[in-house]
Amino acid sequence: MTTGDPTTLLSGVAVETWLAGEWKTLCLISAVVLSLLWVWWRTGSTHLLIMLLLRWLVGKRSDASSVVKFLEERTDLMHFRAVTGVRNAPTLPAAERIIQWSKRNDLDIDMVGRAHRYLDVRRPSLRTGPSHGWANWGLLCGLLLWLLAGFAALMGALAPPVLNVIKTDTPYLVDGERAWQFRWSGTPQALRFTRDDCAEPERIVEATQYAEYDVGVLCKLLLSEPRAYLRSVLRQQRVAAGIAALLAVFWGAQALLWVRSVRAVRALHAQMAADG
Length: 276
What we know:
It is built from ten helices and seven strands. The chain has helices at residues 6-9, 23-43, 47-58, 66-84, 92-104, 109-114, 132-158, 201-208, 212-222, 227-275, and strands spanning 13-15, 119-120, 125-126, 162-165, 170-174, 178-181, 193-194.
């Protein structure tokens, strides 16, 4: 049995993941970025983010110039957008008109915020939303994306480390004791080989029909006591799967929010028609 650093022994193997870095730091940065993206998405503007940055850097200005007043009004508008979800309100007077309109028609401002995509902020009034069939397609799309997120998270949690042999561009699964070729349809037990089988690599090639070069590289890995190396690969792989799952959850949520908007505008139209 040979020993040594797997990272120096295995110049022919590449980790089948683009992620390499300290995962704790990456998770913290991702949380901050997602929070900032949520504020930007909710308000439809970077104004709040820039104002927070400026106040942190230079402090709050106390003079009463027209520029400062404008920025304060803009900040109030962003607060209105963030709280109500009506991110297409262009000015404070427009926001006030929307508030008065919702009160006159006895409409819940939260429902108005959900239907903001179909809100004409100039009058204000509601446009006709998509048909019920389009909403069903959006719901299906959102659910499929969430299903994909669950699959990515499950694969990240259960799959052993995936390595790619560079020369043949072939992915393999390696759990420290065994190795087998990665196949979406599943790999039969007969095509898996252990570190003990590596005593006779020619038999592995004959039994599995794997490339001789691949078997040599994988056996070198299995015989080098690679547990610490594979744990590092598996951690990176799981973080990558987690990020993919988060992206699928985000876009699935966008689809479901669109469906909620369609249903909200239909409900508001029905309420306004019932009220005469």
